[in-house]
Amino acid sequence: MRLLDRYLLREFATPFCYCFFGFYVFWVSFDLLAQLDMFQRNKLSAGDVFKYYLIKMPDQFSVVIPVALLLGLLYALTNHARHNELTAIRAAGISLWRLSLPYFAVGFVLALVTFATNEFWLPDSLAAAQRFIGGEHSSRKTENRHILRNVGFSSTAKNRKWFIESYNLHTHEMVRPRVEWTLVTGTRREVSAERGFWNGEAWVFTNVQELVYPPVKGALPGPPIETNLLVWHELSETPEEIDSEIKIARINSSDLRQIRKAQFSIKEILDYQARNPGKGDKSRVLDTKLHGRMAAPFTCIVVVLIALPFGALAGRRNVFVGVASSIVICFAYFVLVQVALALGTGGYVAPWLGAWGPNLLFALTGFALTWRLR
């Protein structure tokens, strides 16, 4: 059996590689035409554009990998069926499910690659690509490219609100930060500082003024407490958590285009939900994004289920029939994914259904067709 598996994988590897690189070049070319005006406005050279697409590479991988897998599988299976190889293999007593094991193994490996890319590479790469376009090659000064103005966010679980006049995403330095903190006793603390920075273990504020409000409605604060330097270990928010808070807080829950472009890792979403429990205006968006992030790798498994019945039909068909079939299937699948995610983020369907619905529909369809074909 291992000889057959190696043969099937070898015959599949060549069309997969061609489809992967070909579709990647097509995707980048299409995106390049769409972004050409932006590149010209920012006066990017050819080397800068190349660097931009290197940074943005994981965003294309999440689409290119399943499409290339489907194209490669349909091409290979159609070619085998065209030469009656699948008929001979099945006549030898090997079922279609057993024959498909090497393809499912490839799908599982690519699912792991997709998960790792989406979780550890994609969210940071998109932010880095935006900073590259909007910072290094814009009319703004280089030293201001990582500065955010008038930042505000809250940590519901800890009853804290942050207001920062200026925040550096790289050095995590703050200008005129203010933290409002309501204790469990009802006492409210309001700490303002001239500057703040992270020393690796805690936040350090300089030229600090603290006001303490009694737990009585409308009460005036006591005398201000002033200090030149405050190492505030009680603030448990790390720079990574603050960056994540800022990133998610900037989402407009009514802007579908912005929601579609926003990319978060599973860890970022779970950490944000732990810090901000309850049903806020972003809860359905984040729930749909969370389920979508978990469902995305399984697309590679679903692709195998869909390719089997369409590619393994007996007959002397042209191999380009498989290519045409894959284009139709890809178009239908990705349109359905976008519609389902929009319904999930809009609150029209449950978040899990908006994320998992297309995979479940195509997987069940592929399983049923393969079962009939076996």
Give structural notes:
This protein is of the alpha+beta class and 374 residues long. It has 2 domains: 2-133 and 290-373, no CATH class; 145-240, no CATH class. 60% of the residues lie in helices and 15% in strands. The chain has helices at 2-41, 46-55, 57-82, 85-91, 96-99, 101-120, 122-136, 239-249, 256-261, 266-275, 283-295, 299-311, 319-345, 351-373; strands at 147-155, 160-168, 174-182, 188-192, 195-198, 203-213, 225-232. Strands 1, 2, 3, 4, 5, 6 and 7 form a 7-stranded antiparallel β-sheet that branches. Helix 10 (266-275) packs antiparallel against helix 11. The longest helix is centred in the first third of the chain and has 40 residues, at 2-41. The protein is elongated, with a radius of gyration of 26 Å. Residues 137-143 have low confidence and may be disordered.
Chain-wise SSE layout:
Layout: H1 2-41, H2 46-55, H3 57-82, H4 85-91, H5 96-99, H6 101-120, H7 122-136, E1 147-155, E2 160-168, E3 174-182, E4 188-192, E5 195-198, E6 203-213, E7 225-232, H8 239-249, H9 256-261, H10 266-275, H11 283-295, H12 299-311, H13 319-345, H14 351-373
Helix pairs in contact: 1-3, 3-6, 3-12, 3-13, 6-12, 10-11, 11-14, 12-14, 13-14
Summed up, what is this model?
This protein has 374 residues and is an alpha+beta fold. The chain has 14 helices and seven strands.
